[in-house]
Amino acid sequence: xxxxxxxxxxxxxxxxxxxxxxxxxxxxxxxxxxxxxxxxxxxxxxxxxxxxxxxxxxxxxxxxxxxxxxxxxxxxxxxxxxxxxxxxxxxxxxxxxxxxxxxxxxxxxxxxxxxxxxxxxxxxxxxxxxxxxxxxxxxxxxxxxxxxxxxxxxxxxxxxxxxxxxxxxxxxxxxxxxxx
Length: 180
What we know:
Blueprint lengths: L4 E5 L5 H17 L3 H17 L6 E7 L2 E11 L2 E12 L8 H15 L4 E7 L3 H9 L3 E10 L2 E11 L3 H13 L1
Parallel strand pairs: 4-5
Antiparallel strand pairs: 1-2, 2-3, 3-4, 5-7, 6-7
Helix pairs in contact: 1-2
């Protein structure tokens, strides 16, 4: 039997703390990352919660069986007004395989497109293979890669970008909206 899932707007009491805690716990368990990662997530999430522009920035929580199971944020790039930034994508291990990760990315991209951004950028690390597959399937391309030491680990950071006006990303968006 299929599990009931939903994507809803971020903002219920407990959402902020859950995003921070879930990221800290999942990344520590799966990748051995230390609390400096949780600190980064806390900075991103609390900055959004304290001062986001609702016309240009939004966040969502994925739910499975009525419980929080994932999240994603769309924020304005402070250095480039034409670029939306995809931040804090997460699907809990217990909810993987339900399509929530893809639905979150599609929701984020649709919002960015509707908000008038011509492009979306994200930064990730090469060890996050499943997330990278989601991004590539939605028209993101790798534009930069660099080794770094962060979160107590040696990593390869990667920056991806998608042209939100490109025909292939609009087609993906149309298919997503038709299934909602």
